[in-house]
């Protein structure tokens, strides 16, 4: 019997897929669960997987690897997709794809399976990523094969095949959720009606502005080589830094967004996201860059943001183009060192102070009260040279 590595969450979808792979494909199923700091992996997940027929259940804590090797490199580019989305789901997929391929190699199979739906982005990210790492990989995507289309269909399948799934599974939230240490996403179901606001009880972590702390809070974040290394003077690991920033953001109502985005397949979709720590990190990081990078370097980096973001969003993390961009971004980040102090209050992130040993800021040159910097003649020359950029001047 051939083996398959199934990306397994323990939810209704992947529980049905686990049985379906055995019944319809005659495969021995090994489940793989990536713990990326989501905090909702049940203690009995391995037992549950084996109850459903898995021959083996693998659970990996990837929190540190996820933040250090994926989230932080992405943030070095100040990456935002379509101006708002911090790519919390998209950046997790290349790591999961990598681990599925590695698990397959270890277990002696090149077949993997996932529970991504037929209209979403994740099927693209999983499959392109896996193929990039192993050109011989075979992917089984049940949602593109079977005739089931709803949660009711899945529950009927469970009943027919005597899969021990609680009836409460039929009462799961009326939208799709994905969580990791960087964010929680919500889409589909009741959220597809753009005329209605998301239900307030949907949001899991970030407090509303009304319920956010009534007291402002100041924190200090230090950076080295473009990455945060400490909070309030305490050195922390990458995952612990992001977790702590999440706590601050949730408390102060920072990081909720409700957007319409352009899926890789071309269709539009509504996504609601909670990215508290990432929102703080982006703001703080840009403060240090404003001190340490030249204006031309900042413009160049900003021009790369939509390109780099699209590569991640469309599942091309392992592409040569992303790798080349990363080399350029990482080189510029070497001087992004320093400390920023910010105030958090009612959804706001307010700069208090910033400093860096690599600072390009010169108070004397920039001051209106001091001589220095550009002379009057220098300014005249600069203005004349830039006027010549215009192809024509309207003299009327």
Summed up:
With 396 residues, the chain is α/β, with parallel strands linked by helices.
Uncertain parts: none
Gap between N and C termini:
83 Å
CATH superfamily of the largest domain: Argininosuccinate synthetase, chain A, domain 2
Main sheet: strands, sense, barrel: 5 strands, parallel
Globally, the shape reads elongated
Number of continuous helical runs = 12
Which structural class matches the secondary elements? alpha/beta
How many structural units, i.e. domains? 2
CATH class of the largest domain: Alpha Beta
What is the CATH architecture term of the largest domain? Alpha-Beta Complex
Tell me the β content.
Answer: 15-25%
Mean pLDDT over the residues:
92
Radius of gyration: 24 Å
Descriptive report:
- With 396 residues, this protein is of the alpha/beta class.
- The protein folds into 2 domains: 3-64 and 92-172, HUPs (Rossmann fold); 184-355, Argininosuccinate synthetase, chain A, domain 2 (Alpha-Beta Complex), CATH 3.90.1260.10.
- It is 38% helix and 20% strand.
- It is built from 12 helices and 14 strands.
- The protein has helices at residues 12-25, 45-51, 63-75, 93-107, 122-133, 151-160, 238-251, 276-292, 295-313, 320-333, 363-366, 376-387; strands at residues 3-7, 28-35, 56-61, 111-113, 138-140, 176-179, 184-187, 217-224, 227-231, 234-235, 256-262, 268-274, 338-345, 348-355.
- A 5-stranded parallel sheet has the order 3-2-1-4-5, with helices on both faces. The protein has a 5-stranded antiparallel sheet with strand order 10-9-8-13-14, covered by helices on one side.
- Helix 4 (93-107) crosses helix 5 (122-133) and helix 9 packs antiparallel against helix 10 (320-333).
- The protein is elongated.
- The termini are far apart.
- The model has no long low-confidence stretch (mean pLDDT 92).
